[in-house]
Amino acid sequence: LREDLARRDLTVNAMAYRPDEGLQDPFGGRDDLKNGLLRAVGDPAARFEEDALRILRTLRFASRLGFRVEETTAAALSEKRELLRAVAPERIQDELCKLLTGRDAARVLREKREVFAVVLPELAPMFDFDQQNPHHIYDVWEHTLHAVDACEPELLLRLTMLLHDCAKPLTFTVDFRGDGHFYGHAALSARLTRQALERLRFDNETVFRVTRLVSLHDSDVLNTEKSLLRWLRKIGEEDLRLLLKIKMTDNLAQSPHYSRMEALRETQ
Asked: Helix axis angle, 140-150 relative to 225-252, nearest 10°?
């Protein structure tokens, strides 16, 4: 039994029940469950070398359950992250989708950003990138995480918010006042989004809709009949409702001194 349990991924899974002996818990999984802790069984580096997808699976559990990753296991996650490059993109996509729709997705993305940069290198330029703009109180990555956290745990919304500003560092300019600007970032972010989603083998509909939402996230949607009818004809009611949610979420992650929430609520 001990050898069989040792092949499990995490201590929370490494328990069994025998009618004649009761609960079998050789690795302390019950205590880890009580403490909300994820711990690899045995040597965590060896477990991730056996199957690198366990790196993302651990983070997926952390996101969906609100658990923390035990210190040694967390260190091994980062140390072995390059092994993810050899994992089939379809397997990475599946774990990423489940992780992104978890309740603690933003926290996990923040704590292990170096891991996500391996599977989504489009994210890395955003890390610690100062926007130098009065509309923003966060760097590009922190703005992104606040936007992810603020939106509903729906996959299209979370994917859009994760990637909506990925081209900002590539389009950064500074005006004569020293304010930062990102002209054309929505269009370039959309191209990078398509590149990322196709690489991870997302279905065509998801690629199309997320890419389009990213490209439109900075567009004006006015609270007038003419504007709303034009947008309805252009993208349909379902995606217009998503776009309005995206714009509200984007605004929530900016400086409160430049809030447009009231106007956006009226549009909805």
From this structure: 110
Residue 10: predicted pLDDT: 59
Give the DSSP letter of residue 36: T
Residue 173's beta-bridge partner residues?
181
| Residue-level pLDDT at 268 | 53
Neighbouring C-beta atoms of residue 17, cutoff 10 Å:
9
Q: Tell me the residue type at 63.
A: S
Range 127-144 average pLDDT: 95
Q: Which amino acid would we find at residue 17?
A: Y
d(CA 86, CA 16): 32
CA end-to-end span of the chain, whole Å? 57
pLDDT tops 50 at residue 253: yes
Rounded CA-CA distance 41/48 in Å is: 11
In the numeric block, the tokens 């939106």 are attached to: 151
pLDDT (mean) for 229-238? 96
Q: What CA–CA distances, in Å, run from 15 to 27, 32, 50, 51, 228?
A: 8, 11, 20, 20, 56
Distance CA 122, CA 164 (A): 11
- Residue 68's SS3 state is strand
Q: What is the pLDDT of residue 153?
A: 96
Is residue 145 within 8 Å of 106, Cβ to Cβ? yes
Backbone angles phi, psi at 184, to 5 degrees: 80, 10
- In this structure, the strands spanning 180-181 and 173-174 are antiparallel
- Higher-confidence position of 14 and 265: 14
